[in-house]
């Protein structure tokens, strides 16, 4: 069963192309996380918020990543970090063409 990890936090930037250039190495490193399947990066430059929606193979691995990522963001002075983990209803998600693999 797959699990969604939703993370958001306040951030002064960068956003857009600058975010892509600044965080490319981080994005590549996320691909190496245990149980990681995919991530959608989220940003709202007007509200100064960023985050992401992740898919993990298990709840335990999503939780492990959330703890590590929260500590990393706190090291950059970003607090609070909001994180929630949800079980994916695969049947309904497939009806709506959601990527679950």
UniProtKB/TrEMBL annotation:
Gene3D superfamilies: 3.30.70.100. Keywords: Monooxygenase, Oxidoreductase. The keyword Oxidoreductase applies. GO terms for molecular function: monooxygenase activity. InterPro entries: Dimeric_a/b-barrel, YdhR. It comes from the Bacteria. Pfam families: ydhR. The keyword Oxidoreductase applies. NCBIfam families: PRK11118.1. PANTHER family: MONOOXYGENASE YDHR-RELATED, PTHR39169. This is Monooxygenase.
């Amino acid at each position: 069963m797959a699990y969604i990890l939703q993370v958001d936090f306040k951030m002064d930037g960068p956003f857009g192309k600058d975010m892509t250039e600044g965080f490319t190495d981080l994005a590549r490193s996320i691909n190496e996380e245990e149980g990681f399947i995919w991530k959608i990066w989220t940003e709202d430059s007007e509200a100064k918020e960023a985050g992401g929606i992740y898919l993990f193979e298990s709840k335990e691995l999503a939780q492990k990543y959330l703890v590590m990522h929260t500590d990393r963001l706190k090291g950059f002075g970003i607090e609070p970090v909001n994180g929630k983990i949800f079980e994916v209803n695969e049947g309904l998600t497939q009806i709506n063409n959601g990527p679950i693999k």
